[in-house]
Every structure is written in C-alpha cells, then in structure tokens.
Amino acid sequence: MNELLFAFGNFCDEVMFIAMTKPILASFHQKNPRRRTLASDLRLQSKIQNQESKIFNTPLSLNPLTPRRPTAAFTLIELLAVITIIGILAGLTLGAAGAVRRHGATSTAKAEVAALQAACDRFYADNNTYPVNTNVSPTSSFAPTAYTPAGQALFTNLIGSANLSAAPTSKRYLEPKPAMVFTNTSPNHFIDPWGYAYGYNSDGTYAPLIWSTAGTTKGETNKWITTWPKM
C-alpha cells in the first residue's frame, strides 16, 4: 500500500511538472473569434462600397436610385408669347429691309436721271439741239407705259443705235448699265429701278424734262424724281 501511495505521489509530481513546463502557444496560433469577425466585417464593408460605387457611377438615366424629375416643357402661353415676339421682330426687319430697298432705288433713279440730263447736254453741245420728242408731257399721262415712244427716241439719239447690243452708227453719249435698258422692244428704251420707262419731253430748244414716277402710276407727282425742282 505504501508503495502504491509512493508511486501515485511520483505520478502526481510528474503531471505537475509536465503541466508547469508545457509551452504556451503564441497568440497568432490561437483561435481568435474577434479577429475572424473583424476580417469578415471588412470584407463585407468592401463589397458594400463596391456596390455603392457601381450604383452611383451609373448614368442618371439608368440609375434606379436617382430621383426622377419632371421633363421641362414650354406652356402654351409661353409658346404664344415667343411666336408673337418673333412676328414683331420679323415685321420690323422686313419693314427696315423694304425701306432700305426703296432708299436705294430712289438714289439710283436720281443718279440715272442726272446721267441722262448730262448726256442730253453733251448731245446739245455737238448738235445745237436736244433729242426731240413732244408727244408726252408730265401732265398728259401718269402711266409709265405711255412714255415708251419718247424713251425710244431718247435712247436712239444718245446711244447711236436702236439696240444696246448693236454697234453705234453715230456718237454714243451715254454708257448705261444693262439694268437701265429695256431690251424686249426695238428700239430699246431706258427704264428706272422699278422697271418703268423714264419720261422724256423736249422740243429741241429748251432743256428736256426727264422724270421717273418712282414706282407710282396714279399721278403722285410729289414722289416723282425729276430734273426740275418739285414744288
């Protein structure tokens, strides 16, 4: 019995020795539930951030999280207001353009009337007479179509031929622009910027009367462009 107790005592001593001398594992060899939890949280957080990045970087038209806004559009009143403004501006522009054209035509007619008068003066200097035509006076007719015969006589004397394209048979006293000559009749005749024949009247002795009706056909003589001063 004593031997058994002695053997048991030695065994206990050995167990205590082994227990006291057993090496302790390092911390990184030990299982750490908290460490695993933190790693899982980081991976989950990374996945969430990636998903958010994909969502918020998606174009607005494809992003389901983007709040929808109503599409902007003009109301009927706004459209009517814009159309009205455009109409007013167009009217002003067209009116201004028409005024510019009328002013330009008037300036051209004045220059052409002066050129015809100067050509008649050169003709008189060479022939001691003006081109003669007394058929039409400014007060006998207000229709420019009645001025054609007198205009043809004036054209033939100043150009030296019946047609602008023909070679002159006598001295040419004027070199008109093509737009100033009506060539659909023979002889040709001079026309103003409005397409009407210039009026001409002379008895050969006194300075001729040359005029343009400035596009009017109803006797509005106050609008005429003439070689004589208007009252």
Structure summarized in a few sentences:
With 231 residues, this protein is mainly α. It contains four helices and five strands; from the N terminus they run H-H-H-H-E-E-E-E-E. The strands form two sheets. The chain has a three-stranded antiparallel β-sheet. A two-stranded antiparallel sheet has the order 1-2.
Chain-wise SSE layout:
Elements: H1 2-21, H2 33-56, H3 76-127, H4 148-159, E1 181-182, E2 189-190, E3 199-201, E4 209-212, E5 225-226
Antiparallel strand pairs: 1-2, 3-4, 4-5
What does this structure look like?
By secondary structure, this protein is mainly alpha-helical. The protein has a domain of 123 residues. The protein is built from four helices and five strands. A three-stranded antiparallel sheet has the order 3-4-5. It has a two-stranded antiparallel sheet with strand order 1-2. β1 and β2 form a beta hairpin. The longest helix has 52 residues. The mean pLDDT is 79.
Proportion of residues in extended strands: 5-15%
Helix content: 40-55%
Widest sheet, order of strands: 3-4-5
State the major sheet.
Answer: 3 strands, antiparallel
Give the uncertain stretches in residue-range form.
none
Structural class: mainly alpha
Order of helices and strands: HHHHEEEEE
Terminal residue distance: 167 Å
Query: What kind of assembly state do the chains in view correspond to?
Result: single chain
Mean pLDDT: 79
